[in-house]
Amino acid sequence: MKRLLVTGLLLGGLGLLVLAAWVAVRSARYIASEVYPPRRPVERPPEEAAFAGLRDIAFQDATGLQLKGWYLPPKNGALVVLVHGLSGNRTQLLPEARFLAEAGYGLVLFDLGAHGQSAGTVSTYGDREAAQVVAALDFAALQPEVDARRIGALGFSLGGYSVLKAAAQDARFKAVVVEAAAVAPAQALQDELGHWGPLGLWPALEVMRRAGVDVNAVRPAQHMAALARRPVLLIAGTEDPWVPEASLDDLLRQGQGPWEKWRVSGAGHGDYLQAAPEEYPRRVLAFFSRFL
């Protein structure tokens, strides 16, 4: 009987060790896939009237990181910088680019560092990416067709965090649309992995530490407060598990706008154009029309 008890305890302990190892490995692999995202090929959009004049560009951020993208001159003097999400590239926002271009807006679409055709190996939840968005702004402001007083930005998810932080740092962004980005990355990490306790968090934090990623460097509420009296449109899907209503409301409580939010009925993490094919372009265009 005693031998059976000891055997059971040993097997139970071994099982706990196996579970702990599984949690740690799963946590590390999950974060590694975000810090070192897989690259997707960049395919040029088909020839069509909306993108007539689209040209390849390359520019550098303040650290010298080379970024690749496309530039479309505006017809109305105003320009929007479009910033994609994690593991995407500049082609992710081509549907938005199309209706903006048809309305006369110029565009800069570019691959964030470690994505698409841009240099870099590490993604930082919008921290270093914010400087890359500012570099795109620098490029746009130098173009002769662009009125530097009429530059805005639209960013999705990782791009949303990047745009929000960039606009907080650089007042040349006159209006920004922030999509699917409201919960601070540090809080999202806690929500995603914290239920496993230290075994869920420590391996993830170690992956980020080794990559030089500061998960606390992106603070949407603080960035939003820095945008007081500059226009912001927050967009998220009603079915998006990563952007609860309360997180959007928290951002809106950080100061005074003109700020507004729109929950896209039936949409998840993105796919707003599919969920609201008429209302989504109408709202985005109306926003930029008012403020750019």
TrEMBL record:
Q: Name one GO biological process term.
A: proteolysis
Coiled coil, from the record: none
Q: Where is the Peptidase S9 prolyl oligopeptidase catalytic domain?
A: 124-290
Q: Which GO terms describe its molecular function?
A: carboxylic ester hydrolase activity; serine-type peptidase activity
| Keyword line | Hydrolase
| InterPro entries with a match to the protein in the record | AB_hydrolase_fold (IPR029058), FrsA_esterase (IPR050261), Peptidase_S9_cat (IPR001375)
Q: Name one Pfam family in it.
A: Peptidase_S9
Superkingdom, taxonomy of origin: Bacteria
Key word Hydrolase present: yes
Respond yes or no to whether keyword Isomerase is given for this record: no
Protein known as? Alpha/beta fold hydrolase
Organism encoding this protein = Corallococcus sicarius
